Amino acid sequence: MAKSSTRPEVAEPVDGGPTFGLTKFLDPLPVPPVRRPRGRDAELTVRAVTTRVRLHGQLPETVLWAYDGHFPGPTIEVERDQRLRVSWTNDVTGTMPLVAVRVPLAPAGTPPAELSSNNPGYPRNPDGSPAGGAAHIDGVPDVPAWLVTHLHGADANGGSDGWAHNAVLRGHSQLVEYPNRQPAASLWYHDHAMAITRWNVHVGLFGAYRIRDEREKALGLPDDHDIPLLICDRNLDADADGNPTGQLLFKVDAIGTALVPFTGPFTLVNGVIWPHLDVERDTYRFRLANTSNARFYRLNLINEDGGSENDAVRVIGTDGGLLPRPVPLPEAGLVLAPAERADLAIDFGRDGLRGRSLRLTNTEANAALEPDIMQFRVQGRPGRGAVGLPESLPAEPLRLAHVPDEHDQVWIALVPPGTAGMAHPQMWELRELDGEIPPLPAQNIVQVTDPRTGRTRTFQQVASLFDDTVSIFVKHGSTVEWNFIHFGGPAHPVHIHLVQFQVVARRGFTPDFDVALGGTTSPATGFTDIPLEQHEHGRKDTTVVAGGEWVSVLGRFGESTGQFMYHCHILDHEDEGMMRPFVVHPAEVAEFHPHRGGHGHESYRGG
User: Does an H or E element contain 86, and which?
Assistant: First the structure.
C-alpha cells in the first residue's frame, strides 16, 4: 500500500492499543459544513452521492456514500418552529462500497489481540478468496443504494419519519416535512432502510441536525466554539503485508448462523481516524453523538500524564435538549451508547492546562483496541474572551407526574439469543393475561412480581417480528409508560421514534428464563432500584437496558400522529428483527378502530 509521506510534526508517545501503522492525532479534526435554510417555511435538497474521502493522512481515499458528498453529512441548523421541507434525493452510483466478511468466533480464552475481528483485513488464500473459515457475507456487494432518511429525535408526523420500507432507489427523492416544534436540541439524521441500515450507515449516511431557540441563545453558551463530534468505529481491509488500506471492511464474528454485531479497531470523529483539535484557553461546547453500529463508549478526559481532567467537563444537555443545570461527568466516565447524544462544555482555560495535550478516551474499549478517540491541544494564548458557564440552564420542563397504573402502559420483554431456537436477541410485545394462567414454564409466557404493588403479573407474547400485526396503539395527547424488561443477553440501547421521554426508573433483578422453551421459569422478582445518573434526568429518546434490568420511561405523545417504529439501536439487532411498529392516532378515532377491545388496546392499557 502506498502511504502518504506526511508525518506529524511531533509524534505523540501515547500508550494504548495497536494503531496498525497509522499515527494517532496526525490529522486535524474536520468540522462538517453547516446548512441554515432561511425563512419561516424553508425548503432544502440534500443529495446522497458516491464520493471519495481520506479517513487518515496515511491512507488512500475511501469510497463512501455521503449526504452532499460530506462524511459526515452537513450539519443542518434550524430555528424552533421553523417549518422545513427536505428532499432527500438519492443520486448514489454503484453498489455497496464495502467488503463484508464473517469469521469464526475464536475459542474462549483467546487473547484479545489475537481475535480476528479486532484487526484489519481477513485471511485469504493465494487466489484472494477467504481462508481459515472466513467467508464473504453473500449478497452484500450487490445491494443497490436503497435509501430512506430518519431524523432521529424529531417530533414529525409518520409520513416524514423515515419508515423503513419507504426507501427509494437512485433518481428518486423522499419528501418530508419537519415542523421543528420542540426545544433546542442536538438531533442527528441517518439512513433507516429495512434490513440494510447497518451497511448504509456504515458507508457514510449520517449527519448532525441542530434546533436553536431563543431560550438557549439567551444563556450565552459558547457560540463560535460550538462543534459537533460524531463518533464511530470502522475497520479496513489490509494488503498482503497487513497494512490497512482505505477499503471499508465489515468484519464480524460468527456463532453458527448468528453474527456478532460489528465493532472495529479504528475510531473516527467527524470522519477522521484519531484526529486532533487545537483549542484556545476558552470554554468550548461539543455536541457528541455516538453514531457507531454497536460500540458503547465510556468517555473520560485524560492529560499527558494519564491523570483525569474530568473536572473541566460539564454535561449541559442530552438527547432532546438542555438539562436544568450543568452536571459533572459520572465518576467513572460518561457512557454513551449507540444513538445517544451528550452536550458537553469543556473549560480549557483552567489553571494548569496551558500548552498541554488532553485526550478524549474510551475506557470501555476492548483490551486489544486503541482507547484514544481524539486529542485536544491547548494553546498557550488566551482566547477571545472566555465564556463562563451559567449555574442554571432554563431547560424547558419535561418531568411528568408519574402515577403507576394510571398511565397507558406498554410492556416489552427483551429476550436472549437462542430463545425458542432464534439465533438473535428478540423483542417481544406483551399482553397481560387476566383469566386462567398456565403453569410455568410455558412458551411465550413471562411473569413479573411488580415491586410497586406486590402483585404478580402474567404476560403473553403477542408480537415479535416487524411484520407481525400492530399491537401498540397510542392515543394522541396521552402519556404512556413504556416498560422494558430484559431477561438476559447483551445490553440494548432502545430508541422510541417521535417522543422525547423521561427515564422513570431502572431496577435490577436476577432473570430466571428458560431459553429453550421461551418463557420465565418463575416470576421475575427481587427488583432493586438502580440510581439514575444525573444526566439521565434530561430529555431522552434512547436509553440503555442491560440484562437483568427493568427500565421504565414516560413520554407524552402530544403533537404528531401516524405509524412509527421503536427498536434496538445496535444496527445489526435492528436489521435482524429487533424493531416493531406502533401507531399514534386521535382518541376519537381509536373508538372506531377494529382492534378496539382486543389485544391491541390491552397491550398498552396496563391491567
Answer: strand 83-90
